[in-house]
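We include this case.
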Amino acid sequence: MTVPTLVVGVGMGGIRVVQTLAEFVKDKGEVGDYRFIAIDSSKKDLQDRIKSGYNIIPVGITEEGFDVEDMISKCQYLYEGAGGKGVGALRDRVYGRFLLDLNMSKVGEAVDASLKDLKEKWKKERGEKEAQIMIWLVHTLGGGTGSGTFPSLVVNVHKLAKEILEDKDIKPYIFCVGVLPSATNIKDITHANFDKRYLANSYSALRELELLANAKNITLTQFNPYGSNPEIEIMERPFNRYFLFGIDEDMVRRLKDEEAEAVDEYLTSSNKIIANMMYALPNYPEGLENLWRDVKSPFIAFGESELLVPIEEIKRVAKENDRLGKTVEEEIKKKLKGELDLVVNSSIGELNEGFLEDKCKAILNNHKLRGLSYFIGKSQNEFNKKATKAQTDFEDGVGDVWDELEREEWAKDKIETSEGLSIGDKYEKIVDMLEDRIRDIEKTISSWISEKLHPILRRMLNNEKGKHNKTLNELSEKKDILDKLKLLKSHIDSNLCKSLRVEIGHEEDGVSEVTTHIRKLEVELEKQYKKLSEEGGDRVVKLGIPEEKANDLTMIEKGINVANVESVPDFIKTFNIKDDAVEKLIKNRVEQADDISIRVGIVAKEKEEKEAPSKELFILCHKDNEATLGKHEKAFTGWEKERIITETFDRGKYVFVDFRLGLHLEDIKEYKYRNEEYEDGTLAKTTGLKEDIGRIFAYPEWFMDDENVKGVFKKIIQ
């Protein structure tokens, strides 16, 4: 961080950029060098958009706490018939100005506190170094709050900055960003599918901006709700530079109709373009005092593109590869089959839940998740077979004994009266019958009459008793095996790998849940493979790797080890990416940043017209990535370029910010076409404002020669 920076965003578009930049610098560990103020006429938008923990001061400029109708009647610059809005400015620029004036004391306090804070920070950390503080004002030009408040806000911020900083020999630099709404068809907005008031507002905002840029004895009249109305003489331009960026409102409207998430993605991308540009300038190595010193016009248009090298992504994939393990080929299957045979063929006494869990843990350690998935799937199949066989053996055993007993005289009646029993009930009946029969035999043998039993009969009774005991033992053993296998099968189906939840990364247990989870991981990993190879488009392009190489990424094993890949040069070397491929992508990114269409309505002079604005390219990157740029100078042929090198910037990214310097508002086609329409009355008809077209001006005192303005703002004439 070179320069302590205050960022003030006003209106919905402005506060979105504030939040984006705050997140951007916090990610780089630099949020302490920034102070942020978010100003909006909707408290709800401030609550929804602004997050805590980013040094952002939210300031609501609302009607709350004021007798609005009384204030409106006293305000000298509002048009006749103006009334309270309830919430926001509702695309009414002069009302946005009015809301700022009502709350100017709150805004001034926030700016004052932030500038003093940054001043003390500079004194404490920078010592005797030449003192500079950068101030950004960000707003949109088409709405009511952002565009209506900007002229008054920048004048007051400029005044405060001079008072607070310059007396301490700290040079303030005030840079501004205006987000210009534009139609896809710049010239003919008749069929634009969004509120055309945005375009009328942006035209009047640019007119006011033009006056500020060439300020000579302009007077800004402020409305003070607490006393006399002060006037500020504007003797000089209140800002150093003004950056223009365009938004395709046709696209936003279309996406809103089709897919709301795409709108947010488009606006987020636009905010990132702006944030990258704003981050670059305070890091300008020659100091802000030398930034475009000889360029007289303050207006600058900019575009931006990014070249990404997926360092973090390849490491995530490598870690997931290592966690999942290699695809289970035949050799591994053979090993796992051997492990499974040992388990399946173990005696029923050795098998228990702990034994299975330990075996799964060993498999996971040796063969990772894919091996585990294969092993437990096969285990479930084998134990299903084993349990099915045990069930069959038990049922057959019970059935055979039942049939046999049906032929015994002593059991026949009991069997015949027990039809329709289940196998389990038959088993219990058999046990009861055989145990009763054994007791009867023992009773007969042990009775006093037994001495008179013939030895042959005694032997027959003992043989029968032995047979029944054997039958009971055989059935009991079959049932024990079946019960044990049922318990093991239940554990396998519902609880297997419960002891491995952390290692597997899941909450549900059992073969089906675990294998499904692992399959989901594999599917997600396959998607990541494709993402690594995709090059993307629009403002972001990725220097990817062939999809077939993604499977070989690793952090620990043999393959393409990416554990030490920390920068773009490391990435290029590891994957042996050819120089011409790198240069092609860099050139593509420079051309994309230079593509005027990305800025929609901000179009420089056509080639056949006289002098085109000069252009300069800023390249943001981490210091470790600078070497790669040096190898590809040909990609920057024809460009004045500046490298912005920081140790905190993302090591896997280059950002190319293209600036068009020396623009004049008449160079911008949006301004040129709207001006023609305003002059011939077309804009009034297209926007539906008709005789009220003058209302688009928020600072009517600057346009008292304009008949449209005089026709609307009668109070200020009086």
About this structure: The longest helix spans residues 353-406. The first strand starts at residue 5 and ends at 10.
